[in-house]
């Protein structure tokens, strides 16, 4: 045997051994649409998806669709979970849906990377869908709902799409805890009402971070981080357009971003003392407290409203990003009060002996002394 042939044989043997050891699966091309039929069968049966009970369907390899099929995977069965098992569903970058759900109820899609489709996940006339823990990248629409309700889009990473998450003519859905970054529009609602957009991290959008558009009313937008969206600030982090009224928008952190609103009328705070939103460009001061901000003493709420336009204002803008602990709130109960003073007082002068309750060292300098007392005193009475 020649030396070159021997080396090639050893190389192939090496690859086969390690492929087996690490269970390496190559990307498999799909000959067309894969169906999960209403009766629970998988069509074609050779598709790299398995099920033992017709309730959970699990990828056994990555799937690459190299044809212009309408859908890579069409789900016709309700009350199931499709688990991507960490694999990828990839299109050709031009056409079709990654997942297509139509007239389904209670379908969960989880743990799959979906990329290079027109719609990564398309949900039409369906209810109670759960889209959780996926990565969706490089699609025109990442996740799209139309005529759908009572669904949950949660903890997905949605990156580099035109519209990251798009709701059209859909209501009573929740979009919660997603990382939505580097899309043209992060989260876009059209003709969609009574949805909850909560706890998402929406950043680096080319145009708008969150857009409520054309008749999208009575939605709740809260506890989102909305940062650095809008090319050179020509667009905005949060925009409300097209007769979209009565949306409740509060406890969001708008950082290096603005809100752009037409003549629609919306609610931009949760009343007093809960407060409104944090605006990084707010230039007001906090010297007073109370519903009318006319009592001496700060309360972590700006003394003057943040004016958006003549029809919209945040009456109680937050002085620090929502979720940031108040200095001096030693026990993290949302209020600086006598209980915080007691914690510091019980450890005052330590060390020596050593500090037992490390919360008492407010400024984290290794000592419980007058400087810790001063921090609590300066913020006494503040609530978060």
Tell me the layout of helices and strands.
Blueprint: H1 3-22, E1 28-30, E2 34-36, E3 42-43, E4 49-51, E5 56-59, E6 63-65, E7 71-75, E8 80-83, E9 88-90, E10 97-102, E11 107-110, E12 113-115, E13 119-124, E14 130-132, E15 135-137, E16 141-146, E17 152-154, E18 157-159, E19 163-168, E20 174-176, E21 179-181, E22 185-190, E23 196-198, E24 201-203, E25 208-213, E26 220-222, E27 225-227, E28 238-240, E29 248-250, E30 253-255, E31 259-261, E32 278-279, E33 288-289, E34 295-296, E35 306-309, E36 312-314, H2 338-346, H3 370-378
Parallel strand pairs: 1-6, 2-7, 5-8, 6-9, 7-10, 8-11, 9-12, 10-13, 11-14, 12-15, 13-16, 14-17, 15-18, 16-19, 17-20, 18-21, 19-22, 20-23, 21-24, 22-25, 23-26, 24-27, 25-28, 26-29, 27-30, 28-31, 30-32
Antiparallel strand pairs: 2-3, 4-5, 33-34, 35-36
Helix pairs in contact: 2-3
Detailed description of the structure:
This protein has 384 residues and is mainly β. The protein folds into two domains: 28-314, Pectate Lyase C-like (3 Solenoid); 325-384, Type 1 dockerin domain, CATH 1.10.1330. The chain is built from three helices and 36 strands. The protein has helices at residues 3-22, 338-346, 370-378; strands at residues 28-30, 34-36, 42-43, 49-51, 56-59, 63-65, 71-75, 80-83, 88-90, 97-102, 107-110, 113-115, 119-124, 130-132, 135-137, 141-146, 152-154, 157-159, 163-168, 174-176, 179-181, 185-190, 196-198, 201-203, 208-213, 220-222, 225-227, 238-240, 248-250, 253-255, 259-261, 278-279, 288-289, 295-296, 306-309, 312-314. The strands form five sheets. An eleven-stranded parallel β-sheet has the order 1-6-9-12-15-18-21-24-27-30-32, with no helix packed on it. An eleven-stranded mixed β-sheet has the order 3-2-7-10-13-16-19-22-25-28-31, with no helix packed on it. Strands 4-5-8-11-14-17-20-23-26-29 form a ten-stranded mixed β-sheet, with no helix packed on it. Residues 1-24 have low confidence and may be disordered.
């Amino acid at each position: 045997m020649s030396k070159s042939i021997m080396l090639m044989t050893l190389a192939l043997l090496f690859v086969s051994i390690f492929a087996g050891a690490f269970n390496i699966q190559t990307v498999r091309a799909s000959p067309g649409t894969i169906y999960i039929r209403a009766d629970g069968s998988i069509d074609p049966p050779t598709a790299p998806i398995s099920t033992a009970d017709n309730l959970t369907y699990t990828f056994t390899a990555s799937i690459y669709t190299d044809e212009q099929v309408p859908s890579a995977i069409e789900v016709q069965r309700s009350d199931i979970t499709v688990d991507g098992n960490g694999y990828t569903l990839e299109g050709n970058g031009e056409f079709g849906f990654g997942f297509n759900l139509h007239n389904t109820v209670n379908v969960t899609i989880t743990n799959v990377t979906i990329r290079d489709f027109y719609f990564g996940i398309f949900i039409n006339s369906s209810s109670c869908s759960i889209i959780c823990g996926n990565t969706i990248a490089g699609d025109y629409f990442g996740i799209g709902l139309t005529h759908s309700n009572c669904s949950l889009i949660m903890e997905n990473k949605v990156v580099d799409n035109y519209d990251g998450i798009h709701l059209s003519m859909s209501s009573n859905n929740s979009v919660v805890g997603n990382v939505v970054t580097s899309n043209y529009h992060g989260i876009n609602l059209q003709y969609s009402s009574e949805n909850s957009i909560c706890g998402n991290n929406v950043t680096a959008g080319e145009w708008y971070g969150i857009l409520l558009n054309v008749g999208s009313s009575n939605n709740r937008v809260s506890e989102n981080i909305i940062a650095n969206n809008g090319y050179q600030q020509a667009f905005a982090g949060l925009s409300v357009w097209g007769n979209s009224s009565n949306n409740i928008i509060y406890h969001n952190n708008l950082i290096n971003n603005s809100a752009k609103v037409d003549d629609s009328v919306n609610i931009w705070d949760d009343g007093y003392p809960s407060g409104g939103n944090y605006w990084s460009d707010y230039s007001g001061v906090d010297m007073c407290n109370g519903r009318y901000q006319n009592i001496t003493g700060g309360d972590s709420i700006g003394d003057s409203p943040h004016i958006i336009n003549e029809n919209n204002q945040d009456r109680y803008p937050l002085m620090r990003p929502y979720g940031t602990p108040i200095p001096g709130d030693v026990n993290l109960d949302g209020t600086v009060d006598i209980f915080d003073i007691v914690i510091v007082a019980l450890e005052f002068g330590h060390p020596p002996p050593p500090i037992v309750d490390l919360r008492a060292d407010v400024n984290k300098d290794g000592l419980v002394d007058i400087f810790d007392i001063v921090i609590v005193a300066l913020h006494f009475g503040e609530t978060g």
